[in-house]
């Protein structure tokens, strides 16, 4: 099967014809130079933009153990509908992905994925590094320096041992950087009973302090330097953490919720805005956005962490941390392009080219001959409001309710149509996802 995309505007404003043959991009040429007769199907993009599929380097698809929140079928469809063609799943499932057997179990579940995937191996006191590194894990991490969902926080000595082992295996270490010793328990006491959405949701931001992130980032970078390991800081929520990673030559990611939401939004979000690390001040959010725009930040990744409405509608102490985001990441960033606050090439690099480079994912992240035909067709002139009821995650809610965004018309995964919304009707293709490390 071959498909010719004609008159497609790429992120760098070149207008091109792009020929897909089977699962790869066969040719990229100036518009009007490739013959439509050579393709089984022709899609006239008519000035719309054709982008490389996004690589979301940080998702929690919840299987095994928590399939009532999300599973590989619903999570991957949500990804495809948002223009994400590769996801990397984190280890805090049940059982946690800290042994070779657990990797095998998760890989079997991921066979129903609509998009390509990687599986991270995690670290706990009873992890089995020999069997873990015997499997095709994507990276080591998310390694937790403080407890989050799944209670996988580890001590300093184990962290150092894990980083050293990853360095020997030439494997990137993705770090959840918070230092629990610098949390402020008094902040939760000031929240009163913190009941439900009417409680003081901002107490969670006051509790898990910005200083706790900065200190943990510094420690992770020091340990990484000692072992000459590649350190990647996950979901960096502070300009201090971003600058430290950049200064040390490490890489970091920022989530859409830390990019677009702040503590000022918590009056409306309540405990639906509780996550780890938490939302920061508006001043810090603006500083993070500046670093995303100017190239200091390497990657935008979602930390897609869905929970049910019933679970989130609890006290600030009891509500689980995390928000969904895999379907809205690229659409929100494209809206920023529409509004002139981000450059389209920068967005392409943040969600596609850079993740492929940082994590050495062969054939992903670029529209060039010989790479995987992971493609997203978007019309930057067509935006709509985000509505949780319209999204495809099992949790059926979003912290970005009502915000304008630009959603894909078509998403291809290795040349297969994973999602198609042309004509107003949505259709999904078959589950064709493959492990990018196999």
TrEMBL record:
Pathway: Pyrimidine metabolism; UMP biosynthesis via de novo pathway; (S)-dihydroorotate from bicarbonate: step 3/3. It comes from the Archaea. GO terms for molecular function: dihydroorotase activity; zinc ion binding. The active site is at residue 303. It holds the Pfam family Amidohydro_1. Zn(2+) 2 binds at residues 142, 176, 235. Its cofactor is Zn(2+). Zn(2+) 1 binds at residues 58, 60, 142, 303. Residues 50-383 form the Amidohydrolase-related domain. Catalyzes the reversible cyclization of carbamoyl aspartate to dihydroorotate. This is Dihydroorotase. The gene is pyrC. One of its GO terms (biological process) is 'de novo' UMP biosynthetic process. It comes from Halobaculum halobium. It is an enzyme of class 3 (hydrolase). InterPro entries: Amidohydro-rel (IPR006680), DHOase (IPR004722), DHOase/Allantoinase_Hydrolase (IPR050138), Dihydroorotase_CS (IPR002195), Metal-dep_hydrolase_composite (IPR011059), Metal_Hydrolase (IPR032466). Binds 2 Zn(2+) ions per subunit. Substrate binds at residues 60-62, 92, 307. Keywords: Hydrolase, Metal-binding, Pyrimidine biosynthesis, Zinc. Belongs to the metallo-dependent hydrolases superfamily. DHOase family. Class I DHOase subfamily.
């Amino acid at each position: 099967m071959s498909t010719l995309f004609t008159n497609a505007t790429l992120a760098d404003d070149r207008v091109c014809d792009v020929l897909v043959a089977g699962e790869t991009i066969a040719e990229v040429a100036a518009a009007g130079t490739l013959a439509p007769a050579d393709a089984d199907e022709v899609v006239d993009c008519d000035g719309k933009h054709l982008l490389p599929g996004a690589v979301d380097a940080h998702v929690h698809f919840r299987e095994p153990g928590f399939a009532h929140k999300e599973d590989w079928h619903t999570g991957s469809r949500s990804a495809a509908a948002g223009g994400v063609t590769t996801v990397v799943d984190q280890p805090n499932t049940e059982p946690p992905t800290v042994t070779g057997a657990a990797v095998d179990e998760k890989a079997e579940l991921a066979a129903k994925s609509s998009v390509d995937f990687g599986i991270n191996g995690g670290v706990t006191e009873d992890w089995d590094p020999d069997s873990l590194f015997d499997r095709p894990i994507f990276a080591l991490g998310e390694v937790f320096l403080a407890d989050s969902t799944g209670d996988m926080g580890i001590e300093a000595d184990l962290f150092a041992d894990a980083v050293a082992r990853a360095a020997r295996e030439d494997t990137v270490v993705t770090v959840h950087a918070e230092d629990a010793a610098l949390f402020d328990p008094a902040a939760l006491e000031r929240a009163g009973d913190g009941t439900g959405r009417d409680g003081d949701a901002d107490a969670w931001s006051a509790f898990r302090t910005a200083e706790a992130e900065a200190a943990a980032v510094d420690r992770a970078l020091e340990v990484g330097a000692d072992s000459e390991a590649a350190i990647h800081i996950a979901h960096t929520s502070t300009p201090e953490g971003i600058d430290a990673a950049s200064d040390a030559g490490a890489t970091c990611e920022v989530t859409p919720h830390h990019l677009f939401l702040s503590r000022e939004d918590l009056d409306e979000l309540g405990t639906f805005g509780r996550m780890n690390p938490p939302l920061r001040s508006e001043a810090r959010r603006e500083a993070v956005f500046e670093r995303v725009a100017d190239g200091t930040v390497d990657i935008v990744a979602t930390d897609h962490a869905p929970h049910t409405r019933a679970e989130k509608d609890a006290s600030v102490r009891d509500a689980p941390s995390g928000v969904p985001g895999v379907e809205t990441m690229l659409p929100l960033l494209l809206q920023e392009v529409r509004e002139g606050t981000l450059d389209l090439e920068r967005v392409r690099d943040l969600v596609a080219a850079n993740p492929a480079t940082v994590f050495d994912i062969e054939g992903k992240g670029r529209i060039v001959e010989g790479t995987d035909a992971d493609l997203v067709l978007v019309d930057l002139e067509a935006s709509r409001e985000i509505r949780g009821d319209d999204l495809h995650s099992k949790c059926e809610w979003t912290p970005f309710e009502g915000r304008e965004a630009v959603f894909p018309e078509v998403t291809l995964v290795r040349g297969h149509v994973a999602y198609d919304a042309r004509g107003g009707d949505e259709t999904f293709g078959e589950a064709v996802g493959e492990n990018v490390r196999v």
